[in-house]
Amino acid sequence: MANVSALSGMELGLTDRIGAFLRNLQDARGRHKVYRQTVKELSALTERELLDLGISPSMITSIAMEAAYGK
After folding, report:
1. What's the total number of domains in the chain?
2. Which whole number is the average pLDDT over 12-38?
3. Is residue 70 helix, strand or coil?
4. How many secondary structure helices (H) and strands (E) does the chain include?
5. Nearest partner of 45 among 64, 31, 29, judged by Cα
6. Helices 14-43 and 60-69 sit at what angle, rounded to 10 degrees?
7. Is the full-model pTM beyond 0.70?
8. Is 44 helix (H, G, I), strand (E, B) or coil?
């Protein structure tokens, strides 16, 4: 909802709100795609390969979250 909150204080018409919703939806889908792809790629590595990268298998989801959402 960054687009809507950035415009707070202004009265938005229905068209503007729908446009902001669709942009936010597209952004969310893109971020989720990055998350899924990161999990898929890291999960395809062997435990040895992950350890060579300094990654524990239990860290995969948190790394994917950070890559996609910055959290």
Report:
1. 1
2. 96
3. coil
4. 4, 0
5. 64
6. 150
7. yes
8. coil
Full residue range of the structural domain in which residue 12 is found: 2-69
Non-local (6+) Cβ contacts of 42 within 8 A are 50, 55, 60, 63, 64
Q: Is the separation of the CB atoms in 60 and 44 below 8 Å?
A: no
Task: Indicate the residue type of 23.
Answer: R
Using the predicted structure, report yes or no on whether residue 1 has a pLDDT greater than 60: no
Question: What's the token pair of residue 50?
Answer: 């992950």
Question: Two tokens at 29?
Answer: 């889908």
Task: Give the C-alpha distances (Å, rounded to integers) separating 57 from 33, 37, 64.
Answer: 20, 16, 12
